[in-house]
Structures are given as C-alpha cells and as structure tokens.
Q: What sequence folds into this?
C-alpha cells in the first residue's frame, strides 16, 4: 500500500502509520492525522463529507473520537487509508494537508486518570540495588502483580513543553530546587472506550478499550521522591510534569509489532494469565543530542494487557482519556536503561555526554525520547529543563 | 439574618449555610443551592434575571461557577442571602424552590485530580502501631511534610452510591473479594480557581483557590492495600470508590468555624509555616444506624492551607475541580477514630454494632458520615456495601 503523499515514504509516518493528534494555529485547534511531515485536517474532511465520522472531528480534541470505540476507529482508519492511497482522491484531499512546520501540535486529548506502572524487572531490580543495597532487589509482591500508582493527570504536558525544575523538600528541613532531576522513558496507552464502575476488564478486551500508544517521559525528582515516598508512594517527586508525545499511534498500526513477552515465573493468578504479547518497540534516549540509551520495550515483565486487567480487577471504571504508562523501560544492559538514576548508578558513576561528565539533569539540558518498530516512528517527546523559580 | 423559608431554621441548612449542588430529575440536571429540605434552582434564577452570574448556572455542573473565583463566589452568595431573606423577593423566588425529596442529588462537579493526605497524627500513629508493632509509630518524614498521594478521580461517587465489594489480590496467589473492607472518614476541599504550571501557591492564598468543603469516605480494602502498597503506595485498595457528599459548603459559610490548629514540633520549613487555622468540624460515623465514632477534625496535625501549599510547592498546577482530602480524621480516643481498622484495632478487638460483634464491613452494611459545626450540617455521605461480582 503506497500513498500519493510521496514524501511520506521512509519518514516513519507513512500510510501504514497515520497517528492522530491536534494542531493549533491562528484559526484554532483541529484534529488531524499525520502523514510524513503533513497533517490532514479531519474536521475539514468531515465538513467536505469525504469522511463520515458522526461529527467526531468537529471538536477541538480527540476525546469524542476516542469514545466512539473500535468499530468506528477501524472504519475511520480504513477510509483515511483509502483517501491517502487512491490517486482519485488526491485533488480533494491534498488541499486539506497542512505542513507541520506551520502549526503547533498540542495535547490532543483530555487526560482523565493517569496511572504509572513499574513493570520492567531490570528497572525495579536496579532501583532496589541502588536504594536497598544488601537486600533482595525485588520486593516480595513484585512478581505477583504489576505494581502501579496514580499520577497527576493535570500536569501531563505535550512534547516540547519546557519543564521548570521543581522545588521541594530534599530532606528534613532542606527545601530548594531538586538536585537529582531525572527522566523515565516509558510507553503509554490511551484508553478510548470506557468501562462501568464495579466491572473488571479482561486482558482479552485490551483492544476493545485501548485506542493507541504514546511515548511518555515521567520526569522525576529523585531527592524529593526519596524523602516523601514512605508509606504512600511518589507524590511531588513526580507531579510537577509528565510529558507525552503529540501523536497517538493507533493499535491498528502496530498489528505486526507484537512479539512474545518474557515468560513469567512464578505463575501468575488467573486474571493476569494472559497470552504474553509484547510490542516490539525500541526506545531511544537522547541527552543534549547524544543517544545515551536504547531501552527495549518488548522485554517488560508485565504486558499492557495485564496492566489493564490489574487496573480494573477491583471494579475501578475506565474513562475515555485514561492514560496508563509502562513504567521506566530498562533492558539488561547499562546502555538500555530508561533513567539517569540507573545510567549513572545513583549518580555514583557519571557518564560522558558531549565531552562532559554528567549525572542528573542540569538547567538547559534537553532530553528527547523516541520510539520505533520497523518503519513506524512514534512521536518524539522533547523536554528542555528551565531553572527553578526563585 | 433569617430566611422567609421558615422550615430552614434549625435544619443545619439555614440561610447562613447555602451549600451548592446539582440535582437531577426528568427534566435533566440543574445547579441548585440548598436551604432546609429545598433546592433553589439557580438556572431558573439566572433565566429570570433575579441572579446575575454570567450564565454560570446554565451548565449542568458547578464547574463554570467554581472557575469564576472568589469575587464572583461572594457576589452570588450575597445575592442569594438577599433573595432568601428579604420577604419582598419571596413571591418570585418561592416558585423556584424544589423539594429535595422529588429529585436526586448527583455529583455536582467534574473531579479533576484527587489527592488524599494522611494528616491526622492519631491516625498515622495508630496505623503504625497496628502494622509495624515494636517500631516508631510515625515514619521519619511524617512531621516534616503532609504525606499524600494521588487517588483515582474517575471513581469518586456521590452520597448514596452503593459500593460493590472490590476483588483483587489479598496475598500472593490469593485472589478474591476483600475480607477487610473499611472506611475512612475525611474532610475534602474543592478547588475553584486554577493556578499555572510551574508556580507554587502560598498557604496564604487558600481562600483564593479553594471554594468549599465536602465530606469524604475513602473506602479502603485493607488486605489488597497491605499486599500492594510497597513501594509505590495504595492503588487498587482505594481506587474502586471514594464517596463524597452531594453538597459543597462554601468556605464563606464557615468563616466563624476556624479555631487554633495544634502547634507543630519540630518547627516546619517556611513554605509550610502557616497561621495554624483549623476548621472546628465534628464528624460522626454511623454503622448500620449506630453512631460508633465522633472524629474531631480540628485536631489534625496538618491544616488544609498547608496541604494546598505542599501540593503545589513543586510547581504542580491546580485545576478547577481538584479535590484534596484530609486523610482519615482520628482523635486521641477510640470512639474518635475515622476507620474501622483503628476502631477494632486491626480486627483484633471487635466492636458491638446493634447487638453483633463486628470488625470490617459485611455485605449489606451501610455507613453514613456526617459533619457539623455550630448550626451548620455538612451534607451526609451514605454508602451501602453490595456483594462482590462473581
């Protein structure tokens, strides 16, 4: 299948991808689908009756479309592929393509609840070794359930948003800007179809509820987090900002990206006993333009389908716009970790970045997360660190 | 100041109170203010130009009104007091009063982010003694900052909503309905005015941002919570349901309810060094119609102004509709605790409820939380326990 948008070929955003987003310019916000470095205006497409989507794209966010469910998602995608591949549609559709360098991508949906998991065995083990040396690397519950917690939905920001260094308590009586500002490279899942309160969602229904995938940088202030997290978990060490990519890659574009997930030992309980399908995404962490790590997402111990089943086993409802993230993606090797905490082993082993010895983030640093599988490039997550407010 | 609504006198909802809510009936949802057992239709009042509120009440939730800020809140309240006290307005206004027994109160606002604190020294000490016997009752950070975490905003439900007993992992390999279903009696604060990302909010600006007060029952499954909470805090043990009262009592109605909060030792850091003002609310916990506890809110170690300052010290933004709750309100005495965990000392010391020996909640139980200060009665929070889904 080829698109008549010839610049799309090889861009990571060809016709087999078609991620959704929202762009802003002087005329407001519009839902779009990305092809190459162009955005197709979905509202204009609906207005011109080239796309029948029940008015889903006449809103300035993707929320309505997300809520319509899998049959609608698939029908819209099939029509967009038709419009962008059949040359007969080119004259009408080409006029609705917008160069991305003339607009600003914005956060495309209302984040309902944000849950962050902790599902990489390598990451959890590394954190255990760094913070609890001499004790078992994993806590007793870790292999029995996907550990997770709720983050702050209101501070989820889009790719490119600068992050102000957070201040807070670094220890008893010690208040000031965080000295251990870190990243966490993660994969996030955006829920489309809601579920009712009181009813668990099976891992088998993953694709009925989850619309697509984003990249996530769960910025973390390790000093604030270390002092506050007992006994109720991370709070201000995380809640100042969480960055997501501007483009939601639909699951439908990733059908060929599923591979076997690692086997689990000990066996898990029945509601978590899934079919072990993992997305073969390879992430990349760039620090001031230098690639410092390539975290392999497929090796995560807990799959996204297990995370969804766990999240709802107690009857918690899903809402359109819920975001759940994988937790830091770390592989077995030092150049596969998803945080600078691990990359520099708690700051004890600096790395060389562009000729400088570095541990945690300094003001002015830029981090870019990327993700790729075959010829599909997930939207990047860029973030620049601004000095703390005085 | 007296109202011409004579049945309001002595009801806990007289003209000095006037809490806001949303009611539903066959003609839809409407914003109302409560007086006695009547609801004044604010949309009808605006439509009749008896109230000028910029169309705030032409929405089916209180969100727009909450977002308008303190000057608007005070002007609307002053006008409502005028309309409900001056007999000259009675003929026009009386026609817009709706008996509450003909309508259903619903959740009146969109809960943006939900944060739950842990601010009663008695509660935190009791939990420490029950779960970590032989160790210090409080963890080292507890007196330095108000410990808190994010809960699930999407499962906040209104007074009267039945709660399905949650299922989940009670221990390794052990899945089933919670056997230790509990309550937490709390006071919640509803944010009206947002704050920008990157800027801390001072405790001095509490009344600029917080609109009012609700009662909260933070239902808790202690077995699920105990197994999951290390190291990222409570998750499924809490996320199945959090109940709030249907009526938001504006801070303006509580101006005479402030008393001195307990002194703090050791001294706190500067951003938490507030003026020690506590709301003198006395809660009540009824279990199947029997009052089993009277938790005193004024004795909380951390004040709501400190909680607000802490929540934002890292630059986290506030959104209209954010809810932050006090944490379980427990006093020094056994009959002043806000959870059955404490009331029955971890289940080891059953209490007699209506002739039966009881520890945690059984199916069919009903819990009602109430709160009062002087002649103001906060809206109740009722919840009935339904059996787990099989």
A:
């Amino acid at each position: 299948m080829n698109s008549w948008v010839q610049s799309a070929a090889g861009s990571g955003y060809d016709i087999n991808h078609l991620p959704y987003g929202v762009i802003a310019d002087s005329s407001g916000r519009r839902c779009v689908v990305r092809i190459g470095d162009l955005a197709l205006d979905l509202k204009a497409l609906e207005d011109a009756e080239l796309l029948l989507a029940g008015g889903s794209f006449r809103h300035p966010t993707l929320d309505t479309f997300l809520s319509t469910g899998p049959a609608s998602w698939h029908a819209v995608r099939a029509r967009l592929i038709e419009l962008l591949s059949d040359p007969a549609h080119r004259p009408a559709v080409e006029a609705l393509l917008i160069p991305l360098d003339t607009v600003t991508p914005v956060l495309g949906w209302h984040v309902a609840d944000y849950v962050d998991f902790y599902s990489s065995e390598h990451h959890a083990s590394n954190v255990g070794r760094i913070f609890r040396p001499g004790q078992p690397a994993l806590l007793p519950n870790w292999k029995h359930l996907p550990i997770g917690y709720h983050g702050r939905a209101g501070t989820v920001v889009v790719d490119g948003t600068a992050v102000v260094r957070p201040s807070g308590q670094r220890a008893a009586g010690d208040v000031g800007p965080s000295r251990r500002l870190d990243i966490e490279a993660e994969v996030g899942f955006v829920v489309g179809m809601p579920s009712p309160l009181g009813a668990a969602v099976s891992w088998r229904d993953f694709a009925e509820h989850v619309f697509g995938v984003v990249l996530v940088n769960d910025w973390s202030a390790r000093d604030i987090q270390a002092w506050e997290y007992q006994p109720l978990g991370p709070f201000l060490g995380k809640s100042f900002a969480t960055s997501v990519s501007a483009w939601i890659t639909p699951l439908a574009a990733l059908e060929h990206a599923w591979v076997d997930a690692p086997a689990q030992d000990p066996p898990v309980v029945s509601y978590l006993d899934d079919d072990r399908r993992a997305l073969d995404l390879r992430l990349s962490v760039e620090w001031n333009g230098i690639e410092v790590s390539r975290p392999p997402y497929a090796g995560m111990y807990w799959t996204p389908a297990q995370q969804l089943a766990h999240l709802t086993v107690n009857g918690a409802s899903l809402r359109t716009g819920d975001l759940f993230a994988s937790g830091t993606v770390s592989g077995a090797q030092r150049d596969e970790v998803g945080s600078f905490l691990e990359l520099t082993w708690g700051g004890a082993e600096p790395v060389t970045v562009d000729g400088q010895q570095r541990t945690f983030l300094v003001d002015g640093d830029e981090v870019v997360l990327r993700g790729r599988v075959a010829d599909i490039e997930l939207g990047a997550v860029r973030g620049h660190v601004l000095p703390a407010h005085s």
User: Anything to note?
Assistant: The mean pLDDT of chain B is 97. Chain B is about 15% helix and 30% strand.
